[in-house]
Design a protein that fits this description.
Number of strands: 13
Helix content: 25-40%
Largest sheet: 6 strands, parallel
Radius of gyration: 25 Å
Strand order of the largest sheet: 5-2-1-6-7-8
Shape: elongated
Length: 407
């Protein structure tokens, strides 16, 4: 197998998005990721539709498009954890794995004999990653956690959206489940770090990832702005709290984003736009002054942008080396020449759908290039294969487990 994690086996007991996102990252990196799902039902997110994946004849399948976004590269094995035989299967698979990834509520897996302390006895090298809403400690640890509530509780919605009183004002969630995704990303990093530590020490460990912790970390400079001032930052729409101009402007026929991240870029913009008087103006000469006088500068630049079309602005600013760009819808994203040149959209052979469009991993390696081979699996697609391959089971043994509804 290709990829820097080739030879690593991951047992993925997680569902929906945060855990599966981490599992997909590990699969992209070359790990063999075995996804454990409930028989007949599977991962909750298989039902998060419409839209649904279409089969080769264009008919809806039972799998949502949502599910396919986070389960590329995995093998699906159905196991009934409520059955002792199912619990024993997971223990045996954990003994053969490097990483176990789960997002059950605090304490749930211990009831099945599948907690970290229990599996550590079977496999001391196991890296056991728990992803929960609030973590393994603290007064909220037993609460369920979902992305939307975490975006609100973790401060994201207090700084996202237009200000109160403005048109469309009020708190807004991000357009994707950002708390889930960033937790999955942090989990991926933590697992890779734990694998590096194990390579030196020979020991596994328990990783404790929480949506709330990750969402707060994602606030980045909004946190430190609060620490510096003692005042919680508010919603300012598409404006940047610390950089001006760094926002969209209305051209004759649409919006253009202008991103002047330093004083030099601001002067370049003024030169290209024919408004050097705004570069010389003491009110706007430095970023700090521009932040202080944001309202007036925005008004003046708004008038200037109305003089050209969106296409004219993009061409003018591109020639001047000033960062800018249109606001694309997703169809326009995949029509961008740069996106096409980078091979961001790929197709994988799906068991039911045939060629299934996917988004490639953005991680690029010169020495261990990634290969996307497995489409998101249909439910239980690899159950027999994995039980034969890893546990040495024969057809009769697998049939007996199926008759007992353990798989």
């Amino acid at each position: 197998m290709a990829g820097p994690l080739a030879g690593i086996r991951v047992l993925d007991l997680s569902r929906v998005l945060a855990g599966p996102w981490a599992g997909q990252n590990l699969a992209d990196l070359g790990a063999d990721v075995i996804k454990i799902e409930r028989p007949k039902v599977g991962d909750d997110s298989r039902a998060f539709g419409p839209p649904w994946v279409k089969d080769a004849q264009g008919r809806d399948t039972k799998d949502s498009a949502y599910f396919t976004s986070a389960n590329r590269g995995k093998r699906s094995v159905t196991v009934n954890l409520s059955k002792p035989q199912g619990q024993e299967l997971v223990r045996r698979l954990a003994a053969e794995s490097d990483v176990l990834l789960e997002n059950y509520k605090f304490g749930d897996l211990e009831r099945y004999g599948l907690g970290y302390a229990q599996l550590k006895e079977l496999n001391p090298r196991l890296i056991y990653c728990s992803v929960t809403g609030f973590g393994q400690t603290g007064p909220y640890r037993e609460r369920p956690g979902y992305d939307f509530m975490i975006q609100g509780m973790g401060g994201m919605m207090s700084v996202t959206g237009e200000p109160d009183g403005a048109p469309g004002g009020g708190p807004q969630r991000a357009g994707v489940p950002i708390a889930d995704i960033i937790t999955g990303m942090y989990a991926s990093i933590a697992i890779c770090a734990a694998l590096a530590h194990r390579a030196q020490s020979g020991k596994g460990q328990h990783l404790d990832l929480a949506l709330l912790d990750s969402q707060i970390a994602l606030l980045a400079y909004q946190n430190t702005n609060y620490f510096a001032t003692g005042k919680p930052p508010g919603r300012i729409g598409n404006l940047h709290p610390n950089i001006v101009p760094y926002q969209p402007f209305h051209a004759k026929d649409g919006d253009v984003i202008l991103a002047c991240g330093n004083d030099n870029l601001y002067r370049k913009f003024c030169e290209a736009a024919g408004c050097m008087e705004l570069a010389a103006d003491a009110r706007f000469a430095s970023n700090g002054k521009r932040v202080e006088n944001r309202k007036e500068l925005t008004r003046l630049l708004g008038e200037i942008f109305q003089k050209r079309t969106k296409k004219e602005w993009v061409e003018l600013l591109e020639a001047a080396g000033v960062p800018n760009g249109p606001i694309n819808d997703i169809a326009q994203v995949f029509a961008e020449p740069q996106v096409q040149a980078r091979g961001v959209k790929i197709e994988l052979e799906h068991a039911v759908a045939g060629k299934l469009p996917m988004v490639a991993s953005p991680m690029r390696f010169s020495g261990t290039p990634l290969e996307h081979k497995l489409a998101p699996p249909v439910l239980g697609q690899h159950t027999d294969e994995v039980l034969r391959e890893l546990l040495g089971m024969n057809a009769a043994q697998i049939a007996a487990l199926r008759a007992e509804e353990a798989i």
